[in-house]
C-alpha cells in the first residue's frame, strides 16, 4: 500500500508542472489554473464487426440509446464487447505541438500498425462480472483492501474515515474496501451501473480479463491509431473542436476542477458506455469516461524513425494509459486528446481507470 501510494504521488506531483498550451483549433476556455494543483486524471446484440452508420448523432444522447444491450455472446458462451476491424495502415503518432510536453507526446512520428480488432466500448461492469463469476478472479484492489477514489464522489461517511491523502493531489483518497464492486467504497455498488466502464482494475486485472476473453490489451500505437478514427493531425477522435455545434462528444469535466463539476455533458461520474457519438471507426468513449490501460511500458523518449507495430520499451516501472476520463478538464488534465498519454504503476487502481481489449482475430 505504501509503495502504491508513493508512486501515485510521484505521478500526481509530476503533473504539477503542466501548463495549458494552445493548439490548433483549441477552445479558449478560461484557464482557471491554480498554483499547486496536479492533474485530476492520475492517479447490442449486434454482429461483431458491424456498427450501423448513425444518421443522427444526437440520438446517442437519448435514454433509449443508452439502454441498448452492448454484449455479443460468442460461440463459447462468453458475453463480451462487440469488436470492429481496424484496417491496418500508417499514421502519424504523437504530436509536434504537445499539450503537455513532459508527457512525451512528441515528436510526431510515422507508425504502421497491422490490422487488428478493437472492442467498440470500454469493458463494462456487467462484462467484468461474467468473467469474475466464471473464474473466481479477485482483483488487486480487493487483495490490497483499498483503492483510490476521487474525493468529489465519496459519501461523507466514507470521507470521515479517511486519515491519509496524497499531498500534491488531495482529491485522491485511499478508500478501504473500494473496488470494482464498490467504486466509492463499501457503501456503494454497481447494481445501477452495469453498463458503465469497470473501474478499480489494475493492469494485471485488465490483462487477466482480456486473456479470459481470448483477447489482449491494445498497444499504445494501436490505441492511438484507433482513437484517431482515420483523421489526420486532429486533437480529438472527431476533429479539433471540442464541442461541435455545442454538443458534447465525450464524458469530461465541465466547471472548476476539483471543486465543481456542472455535469453539462450529462454526467458527473462515469456514463454508460456508448452514451456519446462513435468516432469514424465506430469506437465509443476513446477519450473521456474511463482512462484505458495499454500493453506498453511507459517512456517519454520516442524514435522519429518509421516504426512497424511498435510495442514500447521492453521493461519499465509504469504502464501507459490513454484517453483521459470524466475527471479531465483542460485546466488540469488536458489529456482527452488522442496524442495525450499518462502512466501508472501496473498495480495502481482508481475510480477513473478502466480498459478495453483488442485482438488479432475476428471473434
Ligand atoms: C446498491 O446501491 C443502491 C443505491 O445506488 C441502493 O439503493 C441498493 O440498496 C444497493 N444494493 C445493495 C445490494 O447494496
Ligand atoms: Ca462529465
Ligand atoms: Ca475511455
From TrEMBL:
Q: Return any one Pfam family short name.
A: FGE-sulfatase
**What molecular function terms (GO) are annotated for this protein?**
formylglycine-generating oxidase activity
Bias (Low complexity) occurs at 50-59
Keywords from UniProt, A to Z, are: Signal
The record's listing under Gene3D superfamilies reads: paralog of FGE (formylglycine-generating enzyme) (3.90.1580.10)
A cellular component annotation (GO) from this entry: endoplasmic reticulum lumen
Residue ranges of the region described as Disordered = 50-79, 344-363
**Where is each Sulfatase-modifying factor enzyme-like domain found?**
83-358
The stretch of residues making up the signal peptide is 1-19
Protein localization: Endoplasmic reticulum lumen
Q: Which PANTHER family match?
A: FORMYLGLYCINE-GENERATING ENZYME (PTHR23150:SF19), SULFATASE MODIFYING FACTOR 1, 2 (PTHR23150)
The molecule here is called: Formylglycine-generating enzyme
What species is given as this protein's source?
Answer: Betta splendens
